[in-house]
Amino acid sequence: MFADSAKIFIKSGKGGDGHVSFRRELYVPNGGPDGGDGGRGGDIIFVVDKGLNTLTDFRHVRKYVATNGQEGGKRRCHGKDGQDLIVKVPEGTVIKEFETGKVIADMSGENTREIILKGGRGGNGNMHYATATMQVPKYAQPGQDGQELWVLLELKVIADVGLVGFPNVGKSTLLSRVSNAKPKIANYHFTTLNPHLGVVDLSDQEGFVMADIPGLIEGASDGIGLGHAFLKHIERTKVLIHMVDAASTEGRDPVEDIRAINEELRKYNPALLTRPQVIAANKIDAVAPDSGDPIAQIRDAFEKDGVQVFAISAVNGQGVKELLYHVYGLLQDMDDAPVVFEREFDLDELEIQAPLPYHVEKLEDGLYCVEGPRIEKMLGYTNLDSEKGFEFFQNFLKKNGILEDLEKAGIEEGDTVKIYGLEFDYYK
Predict the structure, then answer these.
(1) How far is Cα 100 from Cα 112, in angstroms, rounded to an integer?
(2) Secondary structure letter of residue 407 according to DSSP
(3) Is the distance from CB of 23 to CB of 251 less than 8 angstroms?
(4) Do 294 and 248 contact (CB within 8 A), yes or no?
């Protein structure tokens, strides 16, 4: 089963918490703080694996979580960093933010390795917070939380040339004749359900990559049939070959078929119509003698717009060489670099604020103590005598979870909170 899209959950590792400890050595009865820093959380890294060609594995495993950093230790010991999680994907995979559909990264061209989510930073140990006024800090910084995201993976084939057309017009037959690709060929609708890539070798290292895009139908741009699944693979191609059944073996009008396919391309992505197009009028070996000249009708309809028409037979090879060399000539005038989608989603939006280092302690019944370097600074530049300043300080304590921790410690209304020499009565 070819799988060209998958929704997965990814989460980087949390940073390890900083440690609170004090030196306890012989002849050093009152040693200073020596709590070490926490380790960094593991990153989520996407890497191109050229041995993969589908996203099937992501249908079975949908959750990818990196390991957390280790907590810091005594004697200034640094916690071990979390292990990065490597997620291997096929070349051509586009990673999108699931809710908005914005592109995070396109694993194509030179972009073979991308850090999608960074692990949380490790928290500082209490050895960083000793000051002249606080020589025995009982607090350390918690590790920063990891980032998390639901992403959509879409595999869009990388090819120079895309073969498009209704089912059963001979695209798979042509690809198998001119390249090393071996698509299944049969006479029924949606014979090809997977895009097939083939390398077309002309001569003297000249050639290009061609993709047989599965047969489109009217309404494909609206998602009818497997429309969206097929159309996404055309977006990377630089030249489009419209293949039609010139012999009308199934009773279809080749001119109307080309117009219908162009309309589906326009509705899906108007930029697709700005790319060079060539028409391959196939099955000329099966044209009935009394059916007029269908090739002339196709040329009259499209060559006035600069679209060249080639009469070919994918079965016996008639006209195929001329078609391929013309397409190769079009490619020579174009940039060699593959079509790579630009980043649209700003990963900085996921940046998580590092939590404050602070300590909440119950000293005795009805008396609690709160300490922390940011809290001490806030007291230094906040006018607590004004109603506005006091409200600002209260909001700061609430926003950073300090009031919640006081309640967990058992504080009740009317109890006293001591913060760096100042005392406050606690009321909800």
Answers:
(1) 24
(2) H
(3) no
(4) yes
Burial zone of 237 (CB within 10 Å; 0-12 exposed, 13-18 middle, 19+ buried): buried
428 residues of the chain, pLDDT tens digit each: 345 788 999 999 999 999 999 887 766 667 788 999 999 999 999 999 988 878 888 988 999 999 999 999 998 899 999 999 999 998 889 999 998 889 999 998 888 999 999 999 999 998 888 877 777 888 888 999 999 999 999 888 778 898 888 888 888 888 888 876 554 433 334 434 466 777 888 876 678 888 887 756 554 444 444 444 567 778 888 999 999 998 888 888 889 989 988 888 888 888 888 889 999 999 888 887 776 788 899 999 999 989 999 999 988 889 999 999 999 999 988 877 777 888 888 887 777 777 889 989 888 888 999 988 888 888 878 888 888 888 888 889 888 888 999 989 898 888 899 988 788 888 87
* End-to-end Cα separation, the chain, in angstroms: 60
Which residues are paired to 419 by β-bridges? 422
CA atoms within 13 A on the CB side of 260: 17
Distances from the Cα of 369 to the Cαs of 50, 129, 379, in angstroms? 59, 17, 15
> Residue 367 forms beta bridges with which residues?
364, 416
Alpha-carbon gap, residue 202 to 181, rounded angstroms? 15
The token pair that represents 123 in the structure block: 């928290």
Read off the pTM: 0.72
Residue recorded with tokens 């006024």: 133
Amino acid letter, residue 377:
K
CA–CA separation, 211 vs 222, rounded Å? Answer: 22
Is residue 240 within 8 Å of residue 272, measured between CB atoms? yes
The residue behind tokens 């012989």 is 26
The token pair at 9 is: 């959950």
